[in-house]
């Protein structure tokens, strides 16, 4: 499986223990199987270079948890955001990214304002992008860094415009869903 990770450095030896424990799928090294989506995470910072790192993950022999955008997926994210890693026995977790993570809506969908069914309905409002999280040393050993490509400021600006357009559509769809619930 070819995977991508965007950041301010070349990451040939990723640290699976770096990062937030309460992310969508718990602590691990987050990647995307979609290069174009990985570019959308690119940020411009004066004096910093931004890279898209490319990897290959050999899934043979690994315990993989695959999730779809459904109740199990929502419950998994909801638990991880409360620091309860619900699948520590898996080497790799694959599934959709929560839209409030992509569009920075401050976790309102898992804040308890809406019941679980309402929140799950709202998560369906946006685009569906997948992430792959390498969670164990065993999986990390199966992850091979291939190369890194430096992204130009123009590419990052175009990606930012795409994310803004998707965010606006997400907010519009989310507002429609909330209106229907009232």
Description:
With 182 residues, this protein is α+β, with helices and mostly antiparallel strands. The protein has one domain (2-181). The chain is 34% helix and 20% strand. It contains 6 helices and 7 strands, in the order ββαββαβααβαβα. The chain has helices at 35-40, 71-80, 99-102, 116-123, 137-141, 153-181, and strands spanning 2-7, 29-31, 51-57, 64-66, 92-96, 130-134, 143-150. The strands form 2 sheets. A 4-stranded mixed beta sheet has the order 2-6-5-4. Strands 1-3-7 form a 3-stranded antiparallel beta sheet. Helix 4 (116-123) crosses helix 6 (153-181). The model has no long low-confidence stretch (mean pLDDT 86).
What's the alpha carbon Rg, rounded to whole Å?
17 Å
Helix content: 25-40%
Tally of separate helices: 6
The largest sheet is:
4 strands, mixed
Strand content: 15-25%
Content-based structural category = alpha+beta
Strand order across the biggest sheet?
2-6-5-4
Low-confidence stretches: none
End-to-end C-alpha gap: 43 Å
